[in-house]
Amino acid sequence: MPLGSKAYVILKGNKITNNTVTADTYHAMGGGIWLVCNGLLANNMISCNSIIHNATDYQGNSGGVGCYSSPTDRRKIIVEFNSINHN
pTM, whole model, 2 decimals? Predict the structure, then answer.
């Protein structure tokens, strides 16, 4: 999303289960959810998600839920009333 965007993602009342991200190069992020924009994550069941990351020079993050905001590009991310387990 463009810097300063007012767009908002709403993920509400979902079942996010049994997902896998597999990467041999670069970064692997968010086996279940990787949120890098303004958003609401509410009343979801997020379970049994994973990352398989085979690269040695980059990283893997957030088998279940990951959110990102930086000091220069702030995001409003609300996470409430979710069941997050076995990721």
Answer: 0.81
